Amino acid sequence: MKTMTCKQLGGACDKKFKANTFEEIAEMSKAHGIEMFQKGDVDHLKAMNDMQELMKTPGALNEWFENRRKEFNSLPDDQ
To answer: Labelling 6: which of 16, 20, 48, 57 has CA 20 to 30 A away?
Structure first.
């Protein structure tokens, strides 16, 4: 099991997500993002806009995700 924060995953807060795979942690982050969007959280909305800007450059989002995946894989397992 590994831990990453919302900020490490492109978000705006220090909420921690724990998962065994990057795919699991990415889904948790996505669900959190949807919740924050529905609440109208300004900081998270800005982070979402930043991601939308990234999506305008071909391949940039895939590269960003791969970098997050590498970061996840390099983390030590939780104790």
So the answer is: 57
Give the Cβ contact number of residue 48 at 10 Å. Answer: 18
CB 6 within 8 A of CB 68: no
**pTM for the structure as a whole:** 0.89
| 12/2 Cα distance (integer angstroms) | 19
Residue spans of beta strands (DSSP E) within 1-79: 2-5, 16-19
pLDDT tens for the chain, residues 1 to 79? 999 999 999 999 999 999 999 999 999 999 999 999 999 999 999 999 998 998 899 899 899 999 999 999 999 999 8
Residue in this structure with the two tokens 């982050």, named with its chain if needed: 29
